[in-house]
Amino acid sequence: MRKLIAGLSVVFMVGLFASCNKFLDEMPDNRTQIDNLEKVKALLVTAYPAKCYATWLEPRCDGMADHGATLDGTQPSASFAFIYTAYRWDEYPSMENDDDAEAYWTACYGAIAAANHALEALDELGHPKGSEPYRAEALLCRAYAHFCLLTLFTDFFDEANRGTNPGIPYVTEPEDVINKQYDRETVAATLAKVKDDLAEGLKGVGTASDFVQPKFHFTLDAARMLALRIALFERDYPSVISYASQLIPQPTNFVNIVDQQQQPLLNADGSEVKIPHPNDFASLFCVSNLFDWRAANSAYSGSTEFQLAFCNANNANIILAGEPYSLLNRTSMSTAYTRYTHGGKEFNAILGANASGVNWYMPIFGFNGAPADAPGFLPKIYEDFKVTNINANTGQPYVRFALFRLEEALLARAEAYAMTGEYDKALADLTMFSQRRVQSENIVQYYYSRDKVVDYYTDILTLSDHYMNSNFNAGRFSAALSTYEGKLQRGLVLAVLDARRMEYIYEGMRWFDILRWNIPVTHTMLSGESSTLTPDDDRRVIQIPETASLSGLEKNSYDHIPQPWS
């Protein structure tokens, strides 16, 4: 562990979260009139979800453990009860919390409401000159929030049944009544509306010059990132490559790796080992624009310094930034506040070795006196605090959280290349990604090659029960596992998934990879009770909030649980 910090003083304020207004709990005619373009712009600031999914998605993932108590030996505060229910994949939280799935649902529909009111106001204003970027922003915000809900609260990743599986209400008009009734339609119908808004938004999306703080708004690059994520989740790999390549150039100049006799090094299949030339434009672009953990390790020593550096919206790698109200900073700090977090062994594996042959280089911190099995933590989530009652010293914590980062595009393109048989291009993207993530500055050491990937993953790929070999992923690969190409293709996907798992630790993105690639997850309580979330388990779909189902919205099925807690 690179650094240690002194014991943490865990102090909680009564009323940590102010209560969140429920979506549409105010009559429309009581709202502020939006009668000019400046007010539309101000309204659109609220068209992004004010909550964060990462806090309650990360505990649902693999590699998590029940440590029995927090760092100081006590049980977590009631403010973190939602972590327990997330860890157990319970249908509903044990108590209401402003940082759980229901709060996120409400925040998304609140953002959608703001987008719809902005669109209505622009219609009423007659679309004045210069308004097109803000109309596009409203459409993109509406698409983004609906897509987030669609991938979480429906069985979106059951591709064969998108035409029949229930979707989520796609709200396109400002409500004129409270608690208006909606139909869920189907996943396919909801997705079509998301893509319609995306396509329309892309036509008029603005540039950085249209916004005072462009990193907090949908610009062209942010719209492309949304399009890329949708394409990746749909497994539309040609579109992934297209959108990613509009964000990150493709390398065109390569250099051979040579053996001790200065002859081109060959892979087992006879192909030459080549890597992007260090002076290639794409390679230099990645060096300049990806977040540089190696430089951060040299420049900073305190955990807060790392957090501020990683979350800085001015970083070139941050495409769309947010500041949601969330406890994410606290839930990411090992067992300081919660007993349910990464296992120590699993944490070290996530941030340790990879197929390049050189370990990831991350500033791992720990606490003096922490139990031996407690994980360290990676300081990447910075928390601010908004005081709402000075006398009572209460308020809301919020975090600096990137909704889209450039690294996502590079890794998505690598996966797409792997799945379309362009293996050397996938290797090139993984090598460029590693330039700012591994301990060595010598590209001759940390590159990815065909043989490196095959050698690194062959042992686990030969396991009959590995998820890559399950019936749930049957038919996805172009070559049989028994062949070199079959191992290479599957190994490249695993290399990308491992890189994404490291890159997005604490940020909830692993959950989407679990859904996309049908990864089973087993959780165990300290008591020994355990359960496995299989790819056909209904608990993979987040349940519709009770407030919504009580209003008539159809609930998700929670009947099929093959391996319940026992």
From TrEMBL:
Pfam families registered for this protein in UniProt: SusD-like_3, SusD_RagB
Keywords associated with the record: Cell outer membrane, Membrane, Signal
Principal location: membrane
Gene3D superfamilies documented for this protein: 1.25.40.390, 1.25.40.900
Domain of life: Bacteria
Cited InterPro entries: SusD-like_N, SusD_RagB_dom, TPR-like_helical_dom_sf
SUPFAM superfamilies named in the record: TPR-like (SSF48452)
Official protein name in the record: RagB/SusD family nutrient uptake outer membrane protein
Species of provenance: Candidatus Alistipes intestinigallinarum
Taxonomic placement: Bacteria, Pseudomonadati, Bacteroidota, Bacteroidia, Bacteroidales
